[in-house]
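Entry 14. Ran structure prediction on the chain below.
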Amino acid sequence: MNVGLTKAGFSTVSLLLLGLVSGSANADDIDAHETEMLEHRHHIAVFLGNTHTEHDEDAFTIGLDYEYRLTALLGIGALGEHAVKDIDTWVFGVPLALHPGAGWRLVAMPGIEVHDGETEFLIRAGVGYEFEIDRLTIMPEFSADFVDSEVNLGVGVSLGVKF
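Output, structure tokens:
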């Protein structure tokens, strides 16, 4: 499947959308959340879900995600995932996360996909909604990985802790 959007074009569109969403946040909400967030800038989570390829392959996927919150709106981190069995693919990346408010998390991530000894560049776009109980988090999430001319879809839940 030809996506019709180059990696550079997708990156530009992603950054513009992230900028628009970040501009819509309420300043009072940001100040209150910023104060609370300063105590727990680190977040680590385990991802459990499914990866679906354009070749109608599905695989259980497990991953580990770390995020450091630079501000209440912006975080940066590291991610590693493994889609097991038939797909047998590893994904590694540096996610840039935008938190526009009310539990939403938008992700734009450059990374690599390693499959059968070959490494390819990828761009991930993702969205999730985080539910927090004390410092524990549960986040259903969806992502799309643009690799070469293919799109791989991921869906699952992350279980994490803020510290």
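Strands lie at 42-52, 58-69, 74-83, 89-93, 96-101, 104-115, 118-129, 131-133, 136-147, 150-162. Will compare against last week's run tomorrow.
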